[in-house]
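Morning. Coffee machine broken again, so started the prediction first thing and wrote up yesterday's gels while waiting. Chain of 144 residues, entered below exactly as on the submission form.
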Amino acid sequence: MTWRRYRQIAKDGKVPEPQRGMVDALEALARLAAYYQSMAEGGDDASLTDERKRKTTAEADIAEMERDVMRGNLILRSEVVGELVSRVVVLKGDLLSLPRRLAKYPEAKDISYKYIMQLLKTYSRPSGVFRKAKEGKEHAKSKV
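Came back before lunch.
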């Protein structure tokens, strides 16, 4: 064990602190043995062990997500957003073309145009996660 590691463990209170560069060897060995015993049993605060567990768990989660993507059970957010945006653009174009198709019926053309404009205005308002993102940007701008 290095002197540096001993001081780290002493700082955590697991072994006696060095006094003027000296350590009571018997007490230090007894407490060090107890510390390692508790680590081996999985008890006590073993931050390095906890970090390794977290890293292993995170790596397993990432591998599971990658496997799900390859199997087609999971779709990347960027793909979903791209598909959604393209479908909304097509829908908007189709809606806006309706008044031209109804041109031979003047009343229907005006009614459909007003209704379509109302729909587009309603659905163009940010909501849900889009509202939160917009509010976050406005909040950031107001701080500048």
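Residues 47-71 form the longest helix (25 residues). Going to sketch it on the whiteboard this afternoon.
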